[in-house]
Amino acid sequence: MKRYLLGLPLIALGAYGLLTSVNVIGWAVWFGGVVVAHDFILVPLVLAAGVAASRVALPYRLVLAATALAGAVALPFVILT
Asked: What are all long-range contacts of 76-79, with beta carbons under 8 Å and residues at least 24 apart?
């Protein structure tokens, strides 16, 4: 419980910054869009990929997992260049 109390000053700082220097309506719309995209697009895709990967033999599944991990690590660098 004490560790949660250590985070309260950071939460207060974030709330202060959100309320004083950010367009709150725009932020709320963006945040809502992210929640909808996560729940209705990303999660079903990941679950479908998991079901598809579970039907592959174990050695190939390990290769798929390593490839997905490498792709997830490399994607930000590819997008930002």
From this structure: none
Give the pLDDT confidence of 6-46 residue by residue, as tens digits.
Answer: 899 999 999 999 999 989 999 999 999 999 999 999 999 99
pTM of the model: 0.65
User: How is residue 81 annotated by DSSP?
Assistant: -
Say how far residue 71 (Cα) sits from the centre of its chain. Answer: 15
The single-letter code of the amino acid at 55 is R
Q: What is the DSSP string of 3-70?
A: HHHHHHHHHHHHHHHHHHHS-HHHHHHHHHHHHHHIIIIIHHHHHHHHHHHHTS-HHHHHHHHHHHHH
